[in-house]
Design brief:
The chain has about 375 residues and is mainly beta. It has 6 helices and 21 strands. Bound molecules: the ligand Nc1nc2c(c(=O)[nH]1)N[C@H]1C(S)=C(S)[C@@H](COP(=O)(O)O)O[C@H]1N2 and molybdenum atom.
Length: about 375
């Protein structure tokens, strides 16, 4: 059934562009992270991102095909029914757009971090399909393509395709919804959102990195560096309390938030309630999954004074979420209010708590 009429959380278009616009095009739409419990994003509230405002295609699953060709011994075309006969996996993964970055002007966690969501997906490992086709010696990359007029093709290293990538037809227990790629989407766990190709219809196996639609921001000198640059770094954000909310008074609050990393499972989340002087170990609510959001909590007694709340994620390969100052330092830029993060922004988000309990963006 429908949710209670008292529950009003909705997705909201990014500030830069109305959605749908005058032509009915849907651009990037943020998920209301502050209204989520646990770690699964309900499908109806999953963020949506499209290439240049692509229309969501109306695809009849009976007509849909996935073609695998290129450097393979047996090029194959799969129907949806054929895919569903094969061994499947069910795994939780996050998707995050490279455009998910906090700016000083943003007023809620939906605006600062709403271009990520997490769901349980069901589908067939790409390795199962690729082995069926017989990948030829010398192959090193795949190109994957969606079915809309803007195909959004992307190059993915063959090692990643053979490791944990899969083609998903299920999301949160039902068929993937049209905005998320019905009837079939590619999941490349931990890579930035643009590689999670929706409405997947074609995979070509090739022997070098190829320039595609998706590669406009990924020109790097060397294959390995290029592939690693597409992996989301360790990241976390406190969703309660977060900007736009107001604490009714001093006393106990369980701080709650989400942590994730493209490098694997979250190993540690620390919370600071004094602007970063002391870091305290947060508690996981459930077992952290690889490349998936993990819900964390930390019990806090607010004394009623002004302070800042921060969270910091460390993943299983030892990567630590940086402060914005550290990112500026890394990119050799001065750190001030005008600093905009180069590349993917996984910096620590500060929330300022005022004496009246109001919570605001610490970058403001
Ligand atoms: N076919 C297709 N795949 C696509 C896109 C698209 O517009 N078309 N958008 C990409 C972008 S930019 C992102 S961030 C993710 C967003 O996934 P979501 O809309 O399910 O959140 O899908 C990627 N895959
Ligand atoms: Mo994106």
């Amino acid at each position: 059934g429908d949710r209670s009429k008292y529950e009003t959380a909705v997705r909201a278009p990014v500030a830069e562009r109305a959605s749908p616009d005058a032509f009915g095009l849907v651009f990037h739409v943020n998920a209301p992270l502050a209204d989520f419990y646990g770690s699964i994003t309900p499908s109806s509230l999953h963020y949506v991102a499209t290439h240049r405002g692509a229309f969501v295609p109306d695809i009849d699953p009976k007509e849909h095909r996935l073609m695998i060709h290129g450097m393979v011994d047996r090029p194959l075309i799969f129907t949806m029914d054929e895919l569903k006969r094969l061994p499947f996996v069910t795994r939780q993964h996050f998707v995050e757009c490279a455009g998910n970055r906090a700016k000083p002007t943003q007023k809620t966690v939906q605006e600062t971090h709403g271009l990520t969501s997490n769901a349980e997906y069901t589908g067939v490992l790409l390795s199962t399909l690729l082995k069926e086709c017989g990948v030829q010696k010398g192959a090193s990359w795949i190109v994957a393509e969606g079915a809309e007029e803007i195909k959004g093709a992307g190059s993915i290293p063959l090692d990643k395709a053979m490791d944990d990538s899969f083609v998903a037809y299920g999301q949160n227990g039902e068929a993937i919804r049209p905005q998320q790629g019905y009837p079939l989407r590619l999941l490349v766990p931990g890579f930035e959102g643009i590689f999670q190709i929706k409405h997947l219809r074609r995979i070509k196996v090739v022997d070098k990195f190829l320039m595609n639609y998706n590669e406009f921001g990924h020109l790097r000198p060397e294959d390995k560096e290029l592939a690693l640059g597409e992996q989301i770094g360790p990241k976390s954000v406190i969703t309660y309390p977060s900007a736009g909310q107001r604490l009714p008074g001093k006393g106990f609050y369980e701080i709650s938030g989400l942590a994730w990393s493209g490098g694997g499972a979250v190993k540690l989340v620390e919370v600071s309630t004094d602007g970063g002087k002391k870091w305290n170990k947060a508690q996981f609510k459930g077992t952290p999954q690889r490349m998936a959001h993990t819900r964390f909590g930390y019990g806090w007694n607010w004394d009623g004074n002004e302070t800042q709340l921060l969270s910091r994620c460390t993943d299983e390969i030892g990567q630590v979420q940086p402060l914005r100052e550290q990112l500026a330092n890394y990119w050799n830029q001065p750190y001030d209010a005008t600093f905009a993060v180069t590349g993917l922004d996984n910096s620590i988000q500060p929330w300022t708590i005022a004496r009246d309990g109001s919570v605001t963006n610490g970058f403001a």
